[in-house]
Amino acid sequence: MKAVLALVIIYVGTFFLVIQGASQNSVQAARQGAASAQDSAVSAQPNPSIDPVKAADIRSLMELVGARDLVQDAANNAIEQSREKLIATVPNNDQGQAFVNAFSASYQNKFDADQVTQQLVGIYDKHFTEDEIKGLLQFYGSPLGQKVAAEMPKIGRETQAAARAASTKAAREALVEVKQQNPQVGQSARLGLGQGRWQQRRGQQAQQQTAQQQQDPQ
After folding, report:
1. I need a labelling partner for 218 at 20 to 30 A (CA). Which of 89, 90, 98, 179 fits?
2. Do 72 and 113 form a contact (C-beta atoms < 8 A)?
3. What ranges in 88-142 are assigned the alpha helix state H?
4. CA–CA dist 112, 183 (Å, integer)
5. Separation CA 52–CA 128 (nearest Å)
6. How far is CA 186 from the centre of its chain?
7. Cα–Cα distance measured from residue 37 to residue 40, given in angstroms and rounded to the nearest whole number
């Protein structure tokens, strides 16, 4: 049982490392441009120092744990975070919304989940011995391991949601406190401007659509 729990902990840690790493890489890629693309192409090349048998086992492990789906989930989370930041900086109109939507579509096209998944082979090779990889394969090939692989992404998303909610609550309470302590300096301070503007815009669009349907019933 202790061995099983240890493997589960390893998986949880790996999941959050993938989420964090993919989000950071996506932000850095947006800043670095073409030079970053060249570096990524080089890093995507197979590492000749990895034993071919071990590399094959790692790829089998990636399939069992659904590593590519985890990477894609990380990219989707990063896109949503970037959207919220962009919303606060573009006009609050149809053109601004179209700009943010175009950014999201371009982001999706440029993010290569397969390339990141390939890089995970080298990461796992660095942190696990061949015997440990075989042990992970044995665990994730079992019914319990398959359930862990299926449920951990859901648990990860729920954990992130809980952490975001707690973080938002703490940030709002902290802002109220410091504004009371420094009313002149903090009187114009705000949190969540981008999200609020986006929700306001969507609400206005819904009202306009409802009014149009009432004026022009089919």
Report:
1. 98
2. yes
3. 94-110, 113-127, 130-140
4. 47
5. 15
6. 32
7. 5
Helix (H) or strand (E) run with residue 179 in it: helix 143-181
The encoded tokens of residue 116 equal: 């990141």
pTM above 0.70, yes or no: no
Q: What is the DSSP string of 36-51?
A: HHHHHHHHTS--TTS-
Q: How many residues does the chain have?
A: 218
Closest by alpha carbon to 55, among 127, 153, 130?
A: 130
Amino acid letter at 65?
V
Radius of gyration of the CA atoms of the chain, in A: 22
Cβ-Cβ contacts under 8 Å for 6 (sequence gap 6 or more): none
pLDDT digits (tens, 9 = 90+) for 167-187: 889 988 998 888 888 888 777
CA distance 104 to 79: 6
